[in-house]
Prior knowledge:
By secondary structure, the chain is α/β, with parallel strands linked by helices. About 20% of the residues lie in helices and about 30% in strands. It contains 8 helices and 14 strands. It has helices at about 20-30, 80-85, 105-115, 140-150, 165-175, 195-200, 245-255, 315-320, and strands at about 10-15, 40, 55-60, 60-65, 70-75, 95-100, 120-130, 155-160, 185, 235-240, 260-265, 275-280, 285-295, 300-310. A 9-stranded mixed β-sheet has the order 3-4-5-2-6-1-7-8-9, sandwiched between helices. The chain has a 5-stranded antiparallel β-sheet with strand order 10-14-11-12-13, with helices on one face. A hairpin with a 3-residue loop joins strand 3 (about 55-60) and strand 4 (about 60-65). The radius of gyration is 20 Å and the shape is globular. It starts with 8 loop residues before the first strand and ends in a 5-residue tail after the last helix.
Amino acid sequence: xxxxxxxxxxxxxxxxxxxxxxxxxxxxxxxxxxxxxxxxxxxxxxxxxxxxxxxxxxxxxxxxxxxxxxxxxxxxxxxxxxxxxxxxxxxxxxxxxxxxxxxxxxxxxxxxxxxxxxxxxxxxxxxxxxxxxxxxxxxxxxxxxxxxxxxxxxxxxxxxxxxxxxxxxxxxxxxxxxxxxxxxxxxxxxxxxxxxxxxxxxxxxxxxxxxxxxxxxxxxxxxxxxxxxxxxxxxxxxxxxxxxxxxxxxxxxxxxxxxxxxxxxxxxxxxxxxxxxxxxxxxxxxxxxxxxxxxxxxxxxxxxxxxxxxxxxxxxxxxxxxxxxxx
Length: 327
């Protein structure tokens, strides 16, 4: 059995109530050099002010940028637009970002990505919800219910504009709105670490994330962030030549500290002896699926973890992973 999961296009869904900072984040993505062909689908492109020096061509609904990004409005059927984006497997996007409307539930977009017709071409990399620390707690009625739905489906929650609230107000917001084990990033100006947004493909598993260029997007410019925020994340890798027990590995991943946001890699598992398996943890969601045949690569498990600085107990995690070896 051969699966083309490794060739699927990852899709990141960015949600958040009106004014939370989604547009600021997208602006910074579009102005940064990610070395990735990104298609960004937004609800109202007029809200995004793109630097004219980046634009190489423009139509009514699409803008092509010099850094390889393609941006388009979500007009009409999302399915039609997704099919158009993935039509060319060679020149098409390597990553798709979809901005959900501030008054929509991102679970509907997620359901579309999971349609059978996209099974071999797309997969949900992460669902990120941004909330405004200053305004979120003031929502009432239907708006509060909608905002809560956006948080419920999020893999990672970004509490933005923390510079506008006190520590006590921030603690109250988290206590009133968030689940105890929610993966949360606290920030201002929609600053966000690139490896969390685009997964772990671009990180060097042997390097600390402090050394990564453009680790954070900056609202003022696209130079690397040297503020204390850039010291907050670490990465750690683990490898093993033995076959692992899938159920034991999944249990380890599901019980990681909430400060570990992502894990990703290729594993040798007992349930799929003939195939390498893609393993993906983001937030509280763990996905394991067969990928290419082992005939196409060396049989070896390689996993990379990313979390807050100090959150990865390397000795403990190494022992727990070693206990996953299939006997």
